[in-house]
Amino acid sequence: KCKQFQGYLEKSGVLDTMTKVFITLSEEPEKPNSALDFLKHHLGAATPENPEIKLLHLDLAEMKEKYEALTEENKNLKTKLTQYELPQEKCAE
User: Fold this and answer.
1) Contact between residue 39 and residue 25 where contact means Cβ atoms under 8 Å apart
2) pLDDT tens track for 12-47
3) Where in the cell is it found (predicted)?
4) 42 in Cβ contact with 24 (< 8 Å)
5) What is the DSSP code string of 31-54?
6) Percent of the chain whose pLDDT exceeds 90
7) Helix or strand run (H / E) with residue 29
8) Could you tell me the pLDDT band of residue 85, with boundaries at 50, 70 and 90?
9) Among candidates 50, 35, 51, 40, which has minimal Cα distance to 17?
10) CB 64 within 8 A of CB 70
11) What is the pTM of this model?
12) Per-residue burial over 20-55, b = 16 or more CB atoms within 10 Å of its CB, e = otherwise
């Protein structure tokens, strides 16, 4: 059973992926505080990207563009508004 399991891990690419991550960790000049977090991060990056994640990345990029456009519009509107506001001294009279 052990040989079968080892064969399964080899065929599925698990051994190769784990070996690459361990090599990457061993080559790090400054070892991370948490080797486990390092492994989790690199194993997550090694998996093929889920189509749902790609859609979320596209949505995020789109939302960032909208945010920047709205921020710029807000800035322009504030500038226009200051042109039409009465100075505070005249309002107090």
Assistant:
1) yes
2) 888 898 899 899 999 999 999 999 888 888 887 655
3) Nucleus
4) yes
5) --S-HHHHHHHHHHHHSPPPHHHH
6) 48
7) none
8) confident
9) 40
10) no
11) 0.45
12) ebeeeeeeeeeeeeeeeebbeebeeeeeeeeeeeee
3-state secondary structure 53-90: HHHHHHHHHHHHHHHHHHHHHHHHHHHHHHHHCCCHHH
pLDDT at 7: 93
Residue matched to tokens 């977090």: 37
Q: Which amino acid is at 83?
A: Q
Pair 8, 1: CB distance under 8 Å: no
